[in-house]
Amino acid sequence: MSRIGKRLALLVLIMATVGCDRVTKRFAAASLADSPTRSFMADTVRLEYVENAGAFLGLGSGWPAEVRTGFFILGNGLLLFAMVVAALRRHWAGPALVGVALFVAGGASNLVDRVSRGHVIDFINVGVGPLRTGIFNVADMAIMLGAAILVLAAFRPGEAART
User: Fold this and answer.
1) What are the counts of helices (DSSP H) followed by strands (DSSP E) for the chain?
2) Residues with Cβ < 8 Å from 46, sequence gap 6 or more?
3) Segments forming the whole domain that contains residue 53
4) How many CA atoms lie within 13 A of 138 on its CB side?
5) pLDDT for 60
6) Cα→Cα distances 5→34, 102, 161, Å
7) Is 113 a residue of the active site?
8) Catalytic residue among 21, 34, 43, 122
9) Residue 38 domain flag
């Protein structure tokens, strides 16, 4: 694939990730807010609307608003910027670049929520019986998938970075 084709594919991946997250959050706000939890696939998947002012699993949601704003908006923005700079400076390619793209797309979509609403909309919970995840969203899935791809790429010699 040509260099332009690869960049276009990454741009489409980022736009699709952000777009899916935005659409599903809008769906959650419109149809899940103020309604009971919905259960699917023998209660393996639950849809439940939550406005998360904190980070992962609500971490920091009880902090003062100024601290939350500084930490979760400024800190998140700096982290995402640093990841993009690292990927560009180290000339990451292949799976590592896909991992960064997913991580940054998910982080940026959640950052848009934090800036515009002061919280992130979460609505998906999966598990079996009492063994369940926290409540998350599509952006969180992209962040986790991107991080997993980055970790796997780091263990492949010469894959994560080319100098």
Assistant:
1) 5, 4
2) 37, 38, 39, 40, 124, 125, 126, 132
3) 3-154
4) 17
5) 87
6) 44, 18, 20
7) no
8) 122
9) yes
The verdict on residue 159 lying in a domain is no
Annotated catalytic residue, options 34, 43, 113, 140: 140
Residue 43 catalytic?
A: no
Residues of the chain with pLDDT under 70: 158-163
- Residue 160 forms part of a structural domain: no
C-alpha dihedral sign at 60, 61, 67, 70: positive
Q: Is residue 161 situated within a structural domain?
A: no
Residue 37 φ then ψ, to 5°: -60, 140
Domain count, the chain: 1
Per-residue pLDDT at 61? 86
pLDDT tens digit string along 129-153?
Answer: 999 999 999 999 999 999 999 999 9
Q: Which tens digits make up the pLDDT trace of 148-161?
A: 999 999 888 765 44
